[in-house]
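Journal club prep, shared notes

We agreed each person brings one worked example of a sequence with its structure written out as tokens. Mine is Dephospho-CoA kinase. I'm keeping it raw so we can talk through how to read the token line rather than staring at a rendered picture. Sequence first:
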Amino acid sequence: MVTKIGLTGGIGSGKSVVSRLLRIMGIPVYDSDTEAKRIIATDHTVHRQLSELIGQDILRNGELNRSLLASYLFAKPNHAEGVNRIVHPRVKEDFIRWASSYEGEKTVVAMEAAILLEAGFKSEVDFVVMVYAPPEARIARAMKRDGLSREQVVARIDSQMCDELKRKQADFVITNDGETPLIPQVLELISLLSENNHYLCSAKK
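Then the structure, token by token:
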């Protein structure tokens, strides 16, 4: 049976860096953001449900009208919740299929998701790993990476679940503060998973 890691953390925490290390160490990682974009762009069931929610103009010649979707998402806070209720179940189904494809081939796989806990994906993983970084480090990284202003990054941080709540639900915390080496922490995680593989596979969190 495949043990599934749920890798989470706020914007700028360094989830993608940890994901790359896991891949280098032979652990496949499902990037939920990338896959959600693919599903939104190609899934006909999602297109139908978005049309019912937003209107027929969301599709243009059978393709998703991305600019209209973006305008809808940012128009009101509850609009994102409506879209997420459509997309998240499909992402969850896709992840389950993806993880099952590694049965007999891999003992551990991972899902990277910034909103792993908020989206209800915790029920589909066996072990939650939080990547933590100090707020100022997160702000600086996100500003540099995404070309955002400080105010924009802070607003995104404030819109996500706070670190303390994430930490309480995590089974393992990786500190990515620019000083604490990451590789030893990832190796410790893999060692822990190896030692407890039978337990993790038989007892869902």
